[in-house]
């Protein structure tokens, strides 16, 4: 069976000429490489009132029908549009919005590419690529060993490596401008739940206090850090939180991939050069809440909060 191909203007000129020559539908179909029924439909659709066939008129009618047959835009549906807008207001990526839509409306397709195109074409008032989409690409400068760790990442038990339990954290700092403070961030390897606290400086004793603010009474099973000098008080942090700290290899940020990923997301809210001395605890809590309620692909499109709720029930 031949696959159907639309008639071109050249096909229509040839069809018109052969009709004038009195050739049969079968012969015309053979010459044009189409089925006899396709030739008959083409003539019936586009012939003049007097029964004659003109290729230019036929081509114009074809273009008019094609324009009318275009599918209605997916976001013309108010339910879908409101769902997308709500997701974007919560800083969800188009992929997250698409997957959450699929969970709630499994029989109604909504691709993330549709959302990207709508943003690109400025069809969603108030949203643009520069203000709503996460932008990454620059890597943090790698650092060598600045402290002498008791435990390295190679000493971690299999439970940590395989993300089998809650309570195994990855930690780091997110810097602001020079002498403008920083954030201490900790991410649970299994649930991707974020803990964070502001720190006025990178001095190790101040960073130790920030760990206390971020974790509160939580007693994590382990913490994996990089080798920055700000973590020089790691033994006191271990004692304060009754935990074990492991250090990643130098120049190996992928060994703390969950934390690096979240830090990239935090940079959306706190770009490089941010003055963390002017950031309030309440605003940081809002950002942490947004991130912890953001669905993740690795969690089956559940948010960390939803994932922990499922684990604990």
Structure summary:
The chain is α/β, with parallel strands linked by helices and 313 residues long. The chain has helices at 9-20, 25-32, 36-46, 55-68, 78-89, 94-104, 112-120, 129-132, 158-161, 204-215, 234-241, 257-269, 281-292, 304-311, and strands at residues 168-175, 182-188, 194-199, 222-225, 244-247.
What labels would you give this structure?
14 helices; single chain; alpha/beta; 5 strands; 3 domains; Nucleotidyltransferase, domain 5
CATH superfamily of the largest domain: Ribonuclease H-like superfamily/Ribonuclease H
> Could you tell me how far the N terminus lies from the C terminus, measured between alpha carbons in angstroms?
57 Å
CATH architecture of the largest domain: 2-Layer Sandwich
Q: Provide the domain count.
A: 3
**Number of strand segments:** 5
H-E order: HHHHHHHHHEEEHEHEHHH
State which percent range the strand residues make up. 5-15%
* Helix share bin: 40-55%
CATH topology of the largest domain: Nucleotidyltransferase, domain 5
Summarize the main sheet: 5 strands, mixed
Number of helices: 14
Provide the gyration radius in Å: 31 Å
- Can you tell me the CATH class of the largest domain? Alpha Beta
Q: Give me the secondary-structure category.
A: alpha/beta
**Low-pLDDT residue spans:** 136-145
Determine the mean pLDDT. 88
Shape: elongated
Strand order of the largest sheet: 3-2-1-4-5
